[in-house]
Structure formats: structure tokens, C-alpha cells
Design brief:
This protein is mainly beta. It has three domains: 29-114, RNA Polymerase Alpha Subunit, Chain A, domain 2 (Beta Complex); 124-213, YbbR-like domain (RNA Polymerase Alpha Subunit, Chain A, domain 2); 216-302, RNA Polymerase Alpha Subunit, Chain A, domain 2, CATH 2.170.120.30. The chain has helices at 9-28, 67-71, 161-166, 251-254, and strands at 31-43, 49-51, 58-66, 79-83, 90-95, 101-102, 108-113, 116-136, 143-151, 154-160, 170-176, 184-191, 198-199, 204-213, 216-224, 226-228, 236-239, 242-249, 265-267, 274-279, 289-294, 297-302. Strands 2, 5, 8, 9, 10, 11, 12, 13 and 14 form a nine-stranded mixed β-sheet that branches. Strands 6-4-1-3-7 form a five-stranded mixed β-sheet. A three-stranded antiparallel β-sheet has the order 15-18-21. The radius of gyration is 40 Å and the shape is elongated. The chain starts with 8 loop residues before the first helix and ends with a strand.
């Protein structure tokens, strides 16, 4: 086919005009330098190592390009990359290189500050610790906090071994029992206070806080004192043989107690003949506790 240099002459002329306009526009856009703050990105951290020291969040980077291109930069377009490949435990220095700053096409880097970054690296470890719920507030009048339960009871925490050694427990978000009259159950997140540590996997805990009526005290007089563990063939006499007993416990149980329900006693284990002054001990159920007896000690004669 013969070549016709003047074919589509109008299209060719338009292309030349557009190219000229584009060249003129670009040529008028001056090349400038500008200093900007950019994030530092840590790459290739060796497995089993943790960064313990505070890490710089940003670096000052001096970039070069046309004023139009620099004016269009968005956060994250320029990133200073710190390559930790081959790092070892201890305090180490790493170079922030201009060649490793990630930039859009047409923009170059002339300077990075700081030129070096100091990092403390440490071996990573794991530790299983108990979960301690954070309970806040006060129950309603006439009620008290009772037993406290949490599920799961333990979690596995990951982080630098030196920080793990100081960790005693994980905690939860606050569980409020303010004004509560009945058992409180709440599902809350688990965490640790040290920012260098983290849960092996995010967990939530079910916290159960028993709320029960406040215990009351009641004093019952003339309660007979018993003796226990008297050696075979021996006799014993207690003076005085009755005491006033003050007990504490749930209102419905304490209010119903009689003298026969209380069993204050003295322990005569391994005692031979003689005169002894012994403490009066509790003989109550698990729901009721002995607050005091009057007198709290009695005289015992063993024969």
C-alpha cells in the first residue's frame, strides 16, 4: 500500500497541538523540594522477636517533584520502610534509607531524618494467667457482694519475655453492680494493662457476681458449751458451762436459730488430768459464722 503523508492531516495537526499544550503545561510546573512527615512501616520482623522499646511513629522525609505532583500527595502515599530482616535480640541500630522510602511515580527522596532508628528487640514468649474481673459499684442497701465467678478463668498472653515475667493477671472491662439486688451477669472483653503484651486471641469473659442480702448478727444467751475429744476414761467439767453466742449470717437463717442449733465447744485433744483455760470454738453451720462468745474462754477441769 502506498504511503500518503498527508492522509488524516487534520487529526495529525490536532495531536501536535495537544502535545504542545501538554508540554507547555508540564514545563511551566517547576520542580521543587518539600519536607513532609510520613509513617514508618516495619517489615520482615524475624519470627520469635518482639520490639520492646517505644518506636518512632513518623520520619521527616524531603521529597522532590513538580509542585503539582507534591500538592496532590495524600496521607499514606509516601511511607518510610524499615527492614528488620536478620535482626537479633538486643539494642540495635537500623538505617532509614532514602532508597527504601515508598513514593508515587515521579517523586524522589533526597533526605530522611532520623537517618538511623534505635530499637530494643527481645525474644517472644507465652504465659497463661488468671482473669481477674473488674467489679465496680455498691449493691443496694441491705445487700452485699457475694461469690465472684468468671469464664474463662485463664487466658494465654503473648509478648516479650521480660514483660510476661511481671504479668500476674489479665483483667476485664468494668462490671457494674451499682444498686444491684440480684445476681449480676455481664459479658465483657478481656485485656492486659501492658501495651507490649496481647492475648493469644481476642476473648470475652462471662462475669457472674452474686448479690445477696446483708448478713445480720444475733446474740443468743445461755448456750451450753460442749467438750470434744475427751480421752477415754476421763471426765471433764466446764466453768462456766454456758455462754452468750453472737452469730452472723443470712437473715432468714439467723432469725430462725435456737439454742439447740448452736454447738459451742472446747477441744480437749491430748489433754491429761489438770486445770486448763481454753478458747470457745465455733460449732455452727457453713451458712452461719461465730462472731464471738461471752466469755470467749472457759475453765476446764479434766480428771
Amino acid at each position: 500500500m502506498a504511503w500518503h503523508p498527508f492522509r488524516n492531516l487534520g487529526v495529525k495537526a490536532l495531536s501536535v497541538v495537544l502535545a504542545s499544550i501538554l508540554w507547555a503545561s508540564v514545563s511551566r510546573d517547576q520542580v521543587v523540594e518539600r519536607s513532609i512527615q510520613v509513617p514508618i512501616e516495619f517489615q520482615n520482623i524475624p519470627a520469635g522477636l518482639e520490639i520492646v522499646s517505644d518506636t518512632p511513629a513518623d520520619a521527616d522525609v524531603r521529597v522532590r517533584g513538580t509542585s503539582n505532583m507534591l500538592g496532590r500527595l495524600q496521607p499514606g502515599d509516601v511511607v518510610a520502610v524499615l527492614d528488620l530482616r536478620g535482626a537479633r535480640p538486643g539494642e540495635r541500630l537500623f538505617h532509614l534509607l532514602a532508597d527504601e522510602v515508598r513514593t508515587p511515580f515521579g517523586i524522589s527522596v533526597t533526605q530522611v531524618s532520623p537517618p538511623t532508628v534505635s530499637l530494643l528487640l527481645e525474644m517472644s514468649g507465652r504465659k497463661v494467667v488468671p482473669v481477674v474481673p473488674d467489679v465496680v459499684g455498691t449493691p443496694a442497701d441491705g445487700h452485699v457482694q457475694g461469690a465472684l465467678g468468671v469464664e474463662p478463668a485463664t487466658v494465654e498472653v503473648v509478648g516479650p519475655v521480660s514483660r510476661l515475667a511481671r504479668l500476674e493477671a489479665a483483667t476485664t472491662e468494668a462490671v457494674s453492680i451499682e444498686g444491684a439486688r440480684t445476681t449480676v451477669k455481664d459479658e465483657v472483653n478481656i485485656g492486659v494493662q501492658d501495651n507490649a503484651l496481647r492475648l493469644e486471641r481476642p476473648r470475652a469473659a462471662l462475669v457472674t457476681v452474686q448479690i445477696q442480702p446483708s448478713p445480720i448478727e444475733r446474740t443468743i444467751s445461755n448456750v451450753a458449751v460442749e467438750f470434744r475429744n475427751l480421752a477415754a476414761g476421763r471426765t471433764a467439767r466446764i466453768e462456766p458451762d454456758t455462754v452468750a453466742v453472737t452469730v452472723s449470717g443470712p437473715r432468714e437463717i439467723v432469725s430462725a436459730l435456737t439454742r439447740d442449733d448452736l454447738e459451742p465447744y472446747v477441744d480437749l485433744s491430748n489433754l491429761g488430768p489438770g486445770r486448763y483455760t481454753l478458747p470457745v470454738e465455733a460449732g455452727t453451720s457453713r451458712e452461719v459464722s461465730l462472731v464471738r462468745s461471752e466469755p470467749d474462754r472457759v475453765t476446764v477441769r479434766v480428771r
